[in-house]
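Input/output pair, single chain:
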Amino acid sequence: MLRIFQPPSPNQITGGYLYNRRICAELGAAAPVTVDAERLPAALANGADSESYLLLDALYIRDLAEFEWLRRYGAIALVHGLASVDPSAPSARRASLDQRQRAFLGAVGGAVVTSHYMRDALAMRGFEKARIAACPPGVDAAYFEIEPRPASPPELITVANLGAHKGHLDLVAALAEVSRRRTFHWHIVGDASAEPDYAEAVAKALRATGLAEQVSWHGVLPPDEIIPLLARTTAHVSATRFESYGMAVAESLAAGLPVVAPRVGALPHLVTHGVTGLLTPPGDAGALANALARLLGEPELRDALAAGARTRRLELPSWLRAAREFSIALARL
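Output:
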């Protein structure tokens, strides 16, 4: 039996919360247990038995006072990402969290991570590689069935909750430069409520650069509403500062879309430069603008990258396959 424990969050629709929910659903397990750190010991005690796998979302690292008591349960960490491995995070914050993360990982029986990048990152920090299983997310079947029919003029899409670490302001700067040479429309999909001041800064920058009329804001969308957008879109664009996997990027590749994004975190594991997309140096708005201008201005390049994305999607797992690999990994840890 599988039990996943996760802390409360105002947004449980996307990211790690989506992963937790889909893995449980595909394996026929109970839905993830959302419980705060104060009540976690009692919840673990109630869920523990000899046939249960108890998984703790690594988000608990920020809330638990100490970790030694976890040893009695043989729990397994479920690691979507760690701030200490994010080079875009302030160095002081990375250092302060690193000790807590090491204590947490030292108190659990193993770790399931959601990318091969994160597996290597934990191993480099001294966590025994044999105790780490990489189980990337799946992609909904509907994304694989999309037949792209890009609109004219081209339309771009960014699927990411609005926050400073996702780099929307860098995208505004890059696309403002591109707009002097190319015509396009930009769809922004994502939650603006977590960092409303940042979302307002993005809106202000769009007005200041004259891009506001070329942008559609969509908020958070379910797959059945994102899919029609992807079908008419030319490319997925991102200026994220870090990705421990990149679920939205994988979904766009599954839809046959090329990706323009920075060369950060796990993205080079998903996107092959010049084959399925264009990767740029992180934080370099000029390089990002040049890549976007090439994509929009060179139809042959655009077609070649789209063909590469359609080939790449054959390698991406469905959620059912991802869940089966998750189950096999648990049995081996």
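The chain has a mean pLDDT of 92. The first strand starts at residue 2 and ends at 6.
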